[in-house]
Amino acid sequence: MKDTIIVNTSSESKQEVKASITVKRSSEGERKGLKQRSSRFWLLLLGILLLASVLRLYALDVYPQNFNEDGTLLGYDAWSVWTTGHDHHGAFFPVFFQSFWNPSATNDYDPPTSRYVAAPFVGILGLSEETTRLPFALMGVATVLLVALLGRRWFNSAAGLLAALLLAIDPWHINGCRIAHPATCLPFFTVLGLYCFTRGTSLFAMQKDRHLLRRAHLWLVGSALSFALLTGTYQTMKLQAPLLLCACVVAVLPFVRNNFSRLGWTDLFIWLALYGLFISPLAIEQILYWNRFQPHFDSMSTLSQTNGLALFFTQYLNTYNPSELFFTGFRGGLQVLPPQGVGELFWLEWPLWIFAAIGVSQHKHLSRQVGLVVPALLTIWFLTFPIASSLTTPSPNDQRTYNFLPLPEILAGYGVVVAWELLRRYRWKWFSAAQVALAISVIMLLIFNWMFLSFFFGPPLLQTDATADRIPYNIGLRPVLTDVMQQVKPCDIVWLEPSNQTYIYYLFFTHYPSNLFLSMGQEVDAFQQVYGSVGQVHFATPGGAIAHPAGCQGKPSRTFFITRTTQVGPGWQQIIAVKNRAGVPIWQALVKK
Question: Could you give the CA distance from residue 85 to residue 282 in angstroms, rounded to a whole number?
């Protein structure tokens, strides 16, 4: 029996076949379009990351030229922990790092994240200015990447790329990424925690397979760990990180209460419990040694002053001062900015924030896609970031408000997208208002960055006529110190001018073994900022009776003096000097036989 093939040649059947072919081609076209857009996104992001890398890694050991005592302390402690397991005070893998040797009751203690982040870099690559700054510069580049990914997930690809570009050229962020300071890793852990949290809530919002929920839980674990590390970055984050965590809870609550996603109360509780577990060493240490940590805060707290509440609100409002944010900067010590015209942020960011506010209020579906109410999170973050900074004086301060980043760039990036959509409806002859605004913005952006970069990466300060008091303490000290220590013999005495925590510069620049420093026993216990010594090196001006090293009584010896003072007494002979363009010594080494 033969098979019979029946072919339906009716007009209706042909139309159905054509329709199915059209749908198939349409879906294939959409897939190709998505693939092209994705490729374009990653290609543009690669260009932005290259720009961010150049601005953060070029001549990292030189710019900014001020490698201060905070950077040397961070690097030396990290190196000491890597090589011995102790900080330079002798604490074994400390939870809080005591800052400098200081008999004062207001001793400062830094949270641990920055030291442990830097430890493998200075331990493996060697202790130097460049390796101490390197981890923070790399985290800065990674932050630009994460901002692009977070902006794309919260809004769209264009908003993510624009936010990443604005952060890549932001002077505040460039400054922070190129110095070694506990506060400079704040943006990285902030955006990492938010990105992990968003990835988790997005998977919960899909309400699909169980294996996706397992991935969602892993993202929440990463978020809890990131927020815990953020809490341990800087003193202000002991308050600000929990506030940002609360902002995330508020943003996700509507989805939990109304069953808009599979994220439930149990999942939210586990996430918070994990955060509590991860920060428990910090919390326990803070409670057990409250009397050790509290005096430093009390010494600068607004709460201890008679007009404390009024001062708090004044400082809180001053943090939003447009003049300082966009034209002068907060001038808190970390910024290296031209005298006028360049502030913490780009001039045009504040009107873009207005467009961003319009956008997030009109596109509520964006929240449904990521499983959280993005406008609520952004609003709480924007309103709460100055709280911890405003509790201390003086404020505003660039490092205590550094947790603001990268929020301004995220808002501005999305604001550009919203502004473009609104302004392109209005035309003037061949140009739309959006095109004119874009051209003006690009010109202003180029001027803004030329003003900053030409100053920041300007010629070395020694090529000016500036005197020593106007040149950072570290400039010229390394070559002078290295030359002297190469000439010193066992019975010689070295005096090193005492200021700016000189002893930590000596330990850092000479790579003085931390275990040898710790073995000094009672000499270390009695160590003070000005009148102390490490072996043959005494941190004071020459004078007074100094015991010679053992076995040197009656033997010939020399006395060296390393100083920034240009006027010295008779009998001293200069052996090396680092001078400015006018020939004035910045650092010099003298010897007396």
Answer: 18
Q: How far is CA 527 from CA 467, 500, 523, 534, 536, in A?
A: 31, 15, 6, 9, 14
Report the interhelical angle of 265-288 vs 290-300 (nearest 10°). Answer: 90
Find the angle CA(350)-CA(241)-CA(319) to the nearest 5 degrees: 35
Place of tokens 């968003």: 198
Q: Is the Cα torsion angle 149, 152, 157, 159 positive or negative in sign?
A: negative
Per-position b or e across 488-498, b if 16+ CB within 10 A of its CB:
beebbbbbbbb
| Average pLDDT along the chain | 86
DSSP string, 250-306: HHHHHHHHTTSSS--HHHHHHHHHHHHHHHHHHHHHHHHTHHHHHHHHHHHBGGGST
Mean pLDDT within 564-593:
87
Torsion of CA 197, 203, 209, 212, to 10 degrees: -40
Residue 17 Cα to chain centre, angstroms: 59
Residues with Cβ within 8 Å of 244's Cβ and at least 6 positions away in sequence, in order, are: 190, 193, 194, 227, 230, 381, 384, 403
Nearest to 396 by CA among 325, 444, 448, 497: 325
Q: Encoding tokens for residue 304?
A: 């201890």
SS3 493: strand
Cβ atoms of 177 and 184 within 8 Å: the answer is yes
Residue pair 332/400 in contact by the 8 Å Cβ criterion = yes
CB proximity list for 209: less than 8 A, separation 6 or greater: none
Q: What is the pLDDT of residue 549?
A: 67
CA separation, residue 144 to residues 90, 173, 407, 446 (Å): 37, 10, 12, 19
Q: Position 171: which residue type?
A: P
Rounded to whole angstroms, the Cα distance separating 593 from 590 reads: 10
Separation CA 44–CA 6 (nearest Å): 55
Tokens for 165, please give them: 């570009």
Which pLDDT does position 550 carry in this prediction?
A: 67
Q: Is the pLDDT of residue 23 over 80?
A: no
Q: Tell me the two tokens of residue 419.
A: 């502004």
Percent of the chain with pLDDT over 70: 87
Return the residue matching tokens 């449904």.
Answer: 368
Report the distance separating Cα 513 and Cα 515, nearest Å.
5
